[in-house]
Specification:
Length: 250
């Protein structure tokens, strides 16, 4: 197994290289599709059809945005976790989808990058639904672990032979600090998910935002502070409106 780390639009992209095929540990951004395919063709000197499986850890733009397009161009399969409902379903979900795309552009601008095409379907159409403890088809060294809290369907991917785990957005590195992701819809689930990964005692933790961490002697990434209340788009909007009203009355 060879692990390649690519720089995505706002996140790290992890491509796993096996003789029998390639595994993409997340669906990346819509804007990352060209660079992923170019890396496979030009750097690895392999046909793009060697990409066999994409896992989507959750539905945010930098994790699911390129999945459908990559499947169309390579013929690969898409696998994801068993969420209780589609994350962006309904009017509220569609509003969140647009907001999350705008937030991705905001993060990119903060990193000095130009605005790029990010639109993708808010409803994922996977080939496979995976549950806690399942192994990835054709890549059975990798095990699926449910790590919900950030959204309702987050998964992490545990490579048992090397004690390495990809946790997507379970924690985020900002400068030298480790923080919870935005949003946190289920604080109690999130707290249990962090403890679940910590108790595995992984040697290496792969972050979508922060790179690969050596955790063999413990690590502060597991000490992130979990809010007691959900931190969501709607709650943030209500808080800002309340502040505006308070200032206008004052």
């Amino acid at each position: 197994m060879q692990l390649h780390t690519l720089k995505g639009y706002i996140q790290n992209i992890y491509l796993v290289d096996y003789p029998q095929g390639l595994l993409l540990l997340d669906g990346c951004c819509r804007a990352d599709v060209t660079s992923v395919l170019s890396f496979i063709r030009d750097t690895l000197q392999r046909p793009v059809t060697d990409l066999k499986l994409i896992t989507v850890t959750h539905m945010h733009p930098d994790h699911a945005g390129g999945a459908h397009t990559l499947r169309k161009l390579t013929g690969c399969k898409i696998a994801t976790g068993d969420a209780e409902r589609a994350w962006y379903q309904g009017l509220h979900g569609r509003t969140m989808h647009l907001t999350d795309i705008a937030l991705t552009w905001y993060v990119a601008r903060r990193q000095g990058k130009k605005m790029k095409h990010l639109w993708y379907s808010p409803i994922l159409k996977p080939d496979l639904i995976l549950h806690d403890g399942d192994t990835l088809p054709s890549f059975d060294e990798w095990q699926v672990l449910e790590t919900q809290g950030h959204t309702n369907g987050d998964i992490s991917l545990w490579h048992r032979p090397t004690h390495r785990i990809y946790v997507a957005d379970l924690m985020v590195k900002v400068r030298e600090n480790f923080i919870t992701p935005w949003p946190i819809f289920h604080p109690n689930r999130y707290r249990k998910s962090v403890a679940k990964i910590r108790d595995l005692k992984p040697d290496w933790v792969l972050l979508a935002h922060g790179g690969e961490l050596d955790t063999r002697d413990g690590h502060p990434c597991f000490e992130v502070h979990t809010p007691q209340q959900p931190r969501t788009h709607w709650r943030a909007t209500k808080y800002r409106l309340k502040r505006v009203l308070q200032r206008s009355r004052g």
